[in-house]
Amino acid sequence: MLPTNLDIDVLRALVIAMEHGGFARAAERLGRTQSAISLQMKKLEEQVGQPLFRKAGRTVALTDAGDLLLGYAHRIVALNDEALAAARGRAMDGAVRVGFPQDLAERWLPAVLGSFHRAHPRIHVEAQVGRGRELREKVAQGALDLALAFGEIGGATAGTGAATLAHLPVAWVAPVDFRADPDTPLPLALLDAPCMFRQHGIDRLDRDGRPWRITFTSPSLSGLWAAVEAGLGVTLRTPLGLPDTLATLGPDCGLPMLGSVPLELHRAPSAANPAVDRLDDLLTAALHTLLPGMPPKK
């Protein structure tokens, strides 16, 4: 029996529908009728052999199978577009200056930038890794065209020129076998000040009256992960880019809850060229695969 081949046009319609808020919006963007998009989605369900959508009020939402397929659809569509761009020798010139948090630099960043370079070898990409406030300031000053950066923990919605991509939980991070001792000061491994996560953790511990002591500081996230893995202390961060040797502690760990932090994509007002547009699109698509719960792109 021959394997079933998924239709890339249908997968693209699925991606656009989920990114832009439904079948009607997808129909507008693709120049089709809403009924045509609905028929494509029925065809997709028949190919997969599983229901992909469920009713959610006046709209539809994805089932677990649909959410799983959406992640693959992003990757298939992106790879299709990359292959066409490379094969056609798409001559897009230019330069893009982009910034990333350390959390994405080790595992995620090389694959994303490698994919972009293969599709657009004539575009020069200058990538910087830094802390959130530093990256946001560089975008505002025009020193970076794009930046993925954490916003303020529990802060307001991203400002002009920025889009909030996801709200990520902030959690205590420790070795997988860690057990907190309530009778001794909590050992903390932290990034050097100034650091939003560092100050937030200390403030929460002080508010709860939990004794603590700083046992290790590092200027880099890789150094921090190594210290926590070695048992020198616990730290706090999002699960984004967390090494497999470490774990986030649950609400029953005896430590204060930490809330969430927005992951934002900032774009300089002056960054209006096709090269920046293309990298913006690729970053958003790649993050949809990494963070399946991301809201639609506006």
From TrEMBL:
One of its GO terms (molecular function) is DNA binding. Residues 6-63 form the HTH lysR-type domain. PROSITE patterns: HTH_LYSR. It comes from the Bacteria. Belongs to the LysR transcriptional regulatory family. PANTHER family: HTH-TYPE TRANSCRIPTIONAL REGULATOR LRHA-RELATED, TRANSCRIPTIONAL REGULATOR. This is DNA-binding transcriptional LysR family regulator.
